[in-house]
Amino acid sequence: MSAHHAIDLATGTVRELNAALHALSPDTNQTLWRVSNPRGLHAIAAGVDAPVTIEIDGPVGYYCGGMNKHASIVVNGNAGVGLAQNIMSGFVHVKGDASQSAGATGCGGMIVIDGNASARCGISMKGVDIVVKGSVGHMSAFMGQAGSLVVLGDAGEALGDSLYEAKLFVRGSVASLGADCIEKEMRDEHRALLAAKLEAAGLTGAVDIGEFRRYGSARTLYHFHVDNVSSY
Amino acid sequence: MSDPGKTPRTVPRASATFDEYTLSEIRRAAATGIYDIRGAGAKRKLPHFDDLLFLGASISRYPLEGYREKCSTEVVLGTRFAKKPITLKIPVTIAGMSFGSLSAQAKEALGRGASAMGTSTTTGDGGMTQEERQSSQTLVYQYLPSRYGMNPDDLRKADAIEIVIGQGAKPGGGGMLLGQKITERVAAMRTLPVGIDQRSACRHPDWTGPDDLEIKIEELREITDWEKPIYVKVGAARPYYDTALAVKAGADVVVVDGMQGGTAATQEVFIENVGIPTLAAVRQAAQALQDLGMHRKVQLIVSGGIRNGADVAKALALGADAVAIGTAALVALGDNDPHWEAEYQALGTTAGAYDDWHEGRDPAGITTQDPALSARLDPVAAGRRLANYLAVLTLECQTIARACGKSHVHNLEPEDLVALTIEAAAMARVPLAGTDWIPGVTGRF
To answer: Quick one: how many helices (H) and strands (E) in chain A?
Structure first.
């Protein structure tokens, strides 16, 4: 059984923490890390590339878990701007709320936010799966290219504006849809996809898939045309 | 009474305001209903480095012997915070240009040419290709709003990181790569469907303003263990304040790109009407560094319309540590070469004026993803041409620096310069030639 590594950011630094995490090899046996007193510090556990679990007891600042690969990161608190931005793989779980641009440009892996996510959740997402148990703010999934955004609560204004191929599922209300984002039919393959994302987020049986509505790109803006100019 | 048939007539008079180009653009707009999109930078006549002259040596200044006495050109970038600053042998770098807008052969040629001369190349909006990493001894990885192809592995493979806030051709603008250039490989690198028009965002998705930028820089340093120099690139708009804010945010290097700097594709009206000339930007950026006590501690790279060694020397004299070239590098590779004149004519243009780079039909095989056109460019031969051109830029710059008595090109200074026009004197803050007058600085004529 591997040792449990405790890092106290009241006495140590984010640099020391990240340097230790970056030094881990893919087959490390130092797989459990616990970080205390994060106090909203920025870039905690950014750039990790190892299959380890990092539990952070308290609120984190900007870019926690940025560009994560393989690691599982749990935040027992709220997260600041750009949570797990550009995540490549692995799992990031925030047990509180997340500020704006959560999962921005994420390419893979999964982010689960127990509370609400602010504006631009999943902006320019490129393959990440994001599950928000609460609601998301305006312009979420803006220019989303790939991956899925699952919202158990409500979505703010301009959801999915200028969307490419990201798949959006919202259980509650949507304040408004952005340019070129439309509601789409929820077919069996979409129910299966949603069920898989909810299962990966540990929510199997917790919510009724039938309560969700699906949103996606109308693809009318894929080729610039002057007749669409009022959409921009 | 004179014979009406023999009355002298004035020749037809074209309007200076509604000139031939303007009239043709009005007709084009009326026919299509859409603005003109093109590549390259501002084509209008602007105050530029041509409006400056070096004074050279005289009784009070003695020159260095050409071909004998050393005039160093080495530049070290990233000395402020990076554990691994980069050293360039010449003060000329290759500006960011993407695979996607350029062919893989062109990117490889840029890497070959730059590496042969000991300088760097830069990725673009579309990620890092294996070819350019392999062919580039020193590679700067751009961190752009779109984050196409962005990943931590390539970030760590880079020798430096350039956070792009804007570019001189379009400060405040994003980009559009038309579907003709979104091939399967380009689409895969950008996680987009093949053949669609791809939009590049104008703002970063996860930070806003200088305070956020400071935190973003901290994150990138953390991810790369504080090894890489971090550049901040801005389009020349408010260079004094942008440079100061970049320094405050923790940049190692500030890149200021004037409005003559090229783009792969932007609206003509944007290119010609937004931003300020390179000449006006360089002195303001250098002044900001000097006012902060950071000149030479945070390095300044200037780009936009650099064509010859005199331009390099003038930019350095005004305070830059290095310059970057884009358009000129493409010309060195073979862009707009008269060899392809018949094909340029078929495209409705002529060699030297071809700027529809976004359409992907470049006869020279540079601004295209068409396999047959791309194959026309031999990366080895084109890389050699670029190396030759970089060598000439460096030799020319050294020639001028020696004439001014400088043992390092960085020793060139504003005091070595005078201006030919009042505008250039005001922008560069050097005296009008033959006077002591610097408009806005000294009160005397």
So the answer is: 2, 11
Distance CA A123, CA A100 (A): 9
Question: Which is more confidently placed, B421 or B445?
Answer: B421
User: Could you say which of B34, B190, B197 has the minimum Cβ distance to residue A222?
Assistant: B197
Q: Give the ipTM of the model, two decimals please.
A: 0.95
Which H/E stretch holds residue B425?
helix B422-428
Cα angle B202-B203-B205, degrees, rounded to a multiple of 5: 130
- Residue B155 with chain A: CB contacts under 8 Å: 67
Would an 8 Å CB–CB cutoff place A231 in contact with chain B?
no
Separation in Å, CA of A48 to nearest CA in chain B: 8
| pLDDT tens readout for residues A187-228 | 999 999 999 999 999 999 899 999 999 999 999 887 776 666
- Helices marked H in B124-238 — which ranges? 130-135, 152-157, 184-190, 209-223
Partner residue facing B197 (CB), from A62, A105, A224: A224
Cα separation, B228 vs B226, in Å, equals: 6
- Burial readout A197-216 (b: 16 or more C-beta within 10 A, e: otherwise): bbeebebeeebeeeebebbb
**Cβ-nearest to B205 among A105, A127, A164:** A105
State whether A101 and B155 contact (CB < 8 Å): no
Angle at A151 between CA A147 and CA A155, to 5 degrees: 110
A4-231: CATH topology: Pectate Lyase C-like (2.160.20)
Is there a contact between B219 and A46 if contact means CB atoms under 8 Å apart? yes
pLDDT digits (tens, 9 = 90+) for A115-159: 999 999 999 999 999 999 999 999 999 999 999 999 999 999 999
Task: Look at residue B2 and tell me whether its pLDDT is greater than 70.
Answer: no
Give the start-to-end residue ranges of the domains of chain A: 4-231
pTM (two decimals)? 0.95
Domain B44-334+377-428 CATH superfamily:
Aldolase class I (3.20.20.70)
Are B86 and B160 spatial neighbours (Cβ–Cβ below 8 Å)?
A: yes
Burial of B188-200, coded b for 16+ CB within 10 Å and e otherwise, reads ebbbbbebbbbbb
The sign of the dihedral angle between the CA atoms of A107, A113, A116, A118 is negative
What one-character-per-residue DSSP string does B193-226 give? -TTSPEEEPSS-SS--HHHHHHHHHHHHHHHTTT
Considering only CB atoms, which chain B residues are within 8 Å of A162?
199
Q: Which of A181, A170, A154 is nearest to A211 (CA)?
A: A170
B216–chain A nearest CA distance, Å: 8
| A86 vs B contacts (CB less than 8 Å) | 147, 150-152
CB contact under 8 A, A63 and B224: no
Buried b (16+ CB within 10 A) or exposed e, A50-59: bbbbbbbbbb
| Interface contact flag, B205 A101, Cβ < 8 Å | yes
- Residue in the block written with tokens 């928000």: A132
What part of A 56-115 touches B (C-beta under 8 Å)? 61-63, 66-67, 69, 81-82, 85-86, 88, 101, 104-105, 107
